[in-house]
Write a sequence for this structure.
């Protein structure tokens, strides 16, 4: 496996210079026009818009929500923001845009690409089908994890069916796994005359081998999530199909960039959401998003150098300082300037690539799959490679010294009495600020990190899902399942 470490460390995603030039075009941000208008649109235009919206939703709302649920971030006392998060006030409007944007924008545009027919019949859009099914797989996995049963078989039919039925969560999972299997195979064996997405693909610039690897990695994430369901034989059979297509898993961070810049409405989504405006001034959300005391203490106790990249030191000086998740913080020293805000390892520049899935996550998934006996390999090696990839992404140094600390639980693999706990705990650190939603879902699945605090202003129980939005009850009331508010805390996902 050491050779794999070398391979991954040296892997570089090559994007043709022409694709980079094209991706900087302002056309990529002209999303006010209807991308599904046949008079102006082709798959090449619509796929870009779909990828932009998919990337932004995961970078902003989904990431932000997850980071609060897993107690990474807090809000200082000089701001009244985020009270619903501290109270765990999960209702039918709480982060409803996750559901609504997925169906009302992302899946709508992907369906247009999937169903597009070239009038001449001369153009083959197989490569676009790969992109569509892979992104759908990524997003449907999250929707099932967060909501349970959702529209699937009758979704995105537009005028043909405006009130789709809700499909069984596990059925959707299995169908999505099959779709990802097919997408990976098609990516590697598309017709020779298949249209090259090129610069329209703001994630891989038309590199279909990368898409196959991404599809395989999303599929692995879903299979590992089934680890508590008694389906080990199914999981192993599906991993064997991944091995058979030969593409493997992602070897670098998966990210998007249509030409982000410091200009108005052009900044990288997370940077714009939690960072600075085009004039370089601090956004309000940057001022009211700070580290929790629990996380700062955890990183300090583990001698984790990533703390300097995840969080700034307070504006008033001194060491890193966090706050509890409380609506009204007691005492002094809890205003924005006294606390550590989101740091430069996450807020790199307004034109930074927007991460979608980190290499570190993919390696942690493989480490867990090996540890559970689903695949061959060296779990320790994969675990350490994952930590190295996390350090690399953040621009931190000292990964080997960190994970080689003698006797430190959930840092040293050998010293950790529960290897799965070590893997998930380190994944929680690696996903901080990048994919908070995954950390929340993994916490629900595994219970790790163990002993995370729960806000004192809540009812003392962490939510395990979101509730269907009010808009669904008004427009699809005959199909949307009935729910009580308590189910956000008691109705675990099917794989729990």
């Amino acid at each position: 496996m050491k050779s794999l470490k070398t391979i991954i460390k040296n892997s570089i995603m090559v994007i043709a210079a022409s694709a980079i030039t094209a991706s900087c075009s302002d056309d990529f941000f002209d999303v006010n026009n209807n991308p599904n208008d046949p008079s102006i649109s082709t798959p090449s235009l619509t796929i870009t818009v779909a990828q932009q919206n998919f990337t932004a939703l995961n970078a902003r709302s989904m990431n932000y929500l997850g980071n609060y649920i897993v107690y990474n971030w807090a809000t200082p006392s000089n701001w009244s923001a985020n009270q619903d998060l501290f109270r765990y006030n999960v209702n039918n409007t709480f982060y409803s845009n996750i559901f609504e944007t997925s169906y009302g924008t992302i899946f709508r545009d992907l369906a247009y690409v999937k169903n597009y027919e070239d009038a001449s019949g001369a153009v083959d859009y197989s490569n676009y089908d790969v992109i569509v099914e892979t992104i759908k797989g990524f997003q449907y996995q999250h929707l099932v994890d967060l909501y349970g049963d959702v529209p699937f078989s009758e979704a995105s039919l537009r005028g043909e069916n405006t009130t789709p039925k809700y499909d069984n969560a596990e059925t959707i999972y299995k169908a999505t796994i099959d779709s990802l299997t097919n997408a990976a195979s098609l990516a590697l064996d598309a017709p020779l005359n298949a249209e090259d997405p090129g610069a329209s693909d703001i994630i891989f610039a038309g590199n279909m081998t990368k898409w196959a690897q991404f599809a395989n990695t999303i599929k692995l994430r879903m299979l590992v999530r089934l680890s508590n369901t008694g389906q080990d034989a199914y999981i192993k059979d599906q991993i064997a199909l991944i091995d058979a297509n030969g593409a493997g898993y992602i070897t670098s961070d998966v990210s998007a960039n249509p030409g982000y810049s410091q200009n108005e409405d052009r900044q990288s989504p997370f940077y714009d959401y939690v960072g600075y405006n085009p004039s370089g001034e601090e956004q309000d959300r940057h001022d009211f998003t700070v580290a929790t005391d629990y996380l700062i203490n955890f990183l300090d106790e583990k001698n984790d150098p990533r703390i300097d990249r995840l969080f700034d030191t307070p504006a008033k000086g001194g060491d890193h300082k966090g706050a509890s998740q409380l609506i009204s913080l007691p005492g002094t020293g809890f205003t924005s300037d006294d606390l550590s805000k989101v740091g430069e390892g996450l807020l790199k520049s307004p034109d930074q690539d927007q991460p979608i899935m980190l290499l570190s996550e993919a390696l942690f998934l493989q480490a867990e799959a090996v540890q559970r006996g689903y695949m061959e390999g060296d779990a320790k090696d994969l675990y350490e490679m994952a930590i190295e990839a996390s350090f690399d992404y953040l621009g931190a140094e000292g990964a080997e010294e960190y994970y080689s600390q003698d006797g430190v639980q959930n840092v040293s693999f050998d010293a950790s009495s529960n290897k799965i706990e070590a893997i998930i705990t380190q994944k929680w650190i690696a996903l901080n600020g990048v994919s908070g939603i995954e950390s929340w879902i993994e916490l629900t699945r595994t219970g790790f990190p163990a002993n995370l605090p729960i806000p004192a202003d809540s009812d003392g129980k962490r939510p395990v899902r979101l509730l269907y939005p009010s808009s669904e009850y008004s427009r699809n009331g005959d199909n949307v399942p009935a729910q009580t508010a308590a189910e956000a805390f008691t109705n675990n996902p099917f794989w729990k």
